[in-house]
Amino acid sequence: MLKYKVSAVSYLNTVPFIYGLKSSKIYEDIELQLNYPSACAKKLINDEVDIALVPVVILKSYPSFKIVTDYCISADGPVDTVCLYSNVSLNNIEDIYLDYQSKTSVELLKILCKEYWKISPNFKNSKIGFEEKVKDNTAALIIGDRAFAANDKYKYIYDLSEVWKQMTGLPFVFACWISNKEIDEYFLYEFHQSLKLGIENVEESIRIESINYSHCDNPKEYLNRKISYILDEEKRTGMELFLKKIKDS
């Protein structure tokens, strides 16, 4: 079988996927790479990998790319790890540092600022360590595992998927498994089965794979109650609405 290069996100929320892939019979047929979301996307765009778990915003610029499984990273309400952090209320925020690790979350924040909160802050690109710049009238969008530490650090926390749910009534899809080329059908079937295996064994995946995720106090609670993995019709509707909004903006 052709060996495929696969890039997955290196956050706690992907632990079931990683466990499933490593436990499946196709593991020997893939080259698995772990990166943060925007790096996964960059590799897919540059054809350095064949399949990647990437921010869904990529579909705006690369409509030929295809979602290849019915599994995703999404939330139907609060997610805890994609939040705007501030020490002042929304109307007093002047600058927001945008997390460099995911463009989907950045676009979601911009939509919420414009359509829901009706605020017009200055958006600033970020570098490693930007989290320490949250002070006075400066806020920051922080995503992923670094958000666990931030959740007890700032006065105001705005969970973006929770606000999206309030605004639209729909869940929010952060990332999907997407390919940049045609993939062998048998491989895709086995790939899907490996992801299914991981989702059906969350506790075992935590035990085996989460040795580096001790900063989360309750990973079982987070994975089972905050993260939603099935890309159903309601989530697809939410994703299509999001993509339409960023296309029209």
How would the blueprint of this fold be written?
Elements (H helix, E strand, L loop, with lengths): L3 E6 L5 H9 L6 E6 L1 H9 L5 E5 L2 H4 L4 E10 L6 E5 L8 E4 L4 H15 L4 E4 L12 E6 L2 H5 L5 E4 H9 L3 E8 L5 H15 L2 H8 L9 H8 L1 E3 L2 H16 L1
Parallel strand pairs: 1-2, 1-3, 6-7, 6-8
Antiparallel strand pairs: 3-10, 4-10, 4-11, 5-8, 5-9
Helix pairs in contact: 1-7, 1-8, 4-6
Top keywords for this entry?
single chain; alpha/beta; D-Maltodextrin-Binding Protein, domain 2; six-stranded mixed beta sheet; five-stranded mixed beta sheet; 249 residues; globular
Description:
This protein has 249 residues and is of the alpha/beta class. The chain has two domains: 4-75 and 173-232, 3-Layer(aba) Sandwich (D-Maltodextrin-Binding Protein, domain 2); 82-168, Periplasmic binding protein-like II (D-Maltodextrin-Binding Protein, domain 2). 39% of the residues lie in helices and 24% in strands. It is built from ten helices and eleven strands. The chain has helices at residues 15-23, 37-45, 58-61, 103-117, 146-150, 160-168, 185-199, 202-209, 219-226, 233-248; strands at residues 4-9, 30-35, 51-55, 66-75, 82-86, 95-98, 122-125, 138-143, 156-159, 172-179, 228-230. Strands 2-1-3-10-4-11 form a six-stranded mixed beta sheet, with helices on both faces. Helix 1 (15-23) crosses helix 7 (185-199). The longest helix is centred in the last third of the chain and has 16 residues, at 233-248. The chain is globular.
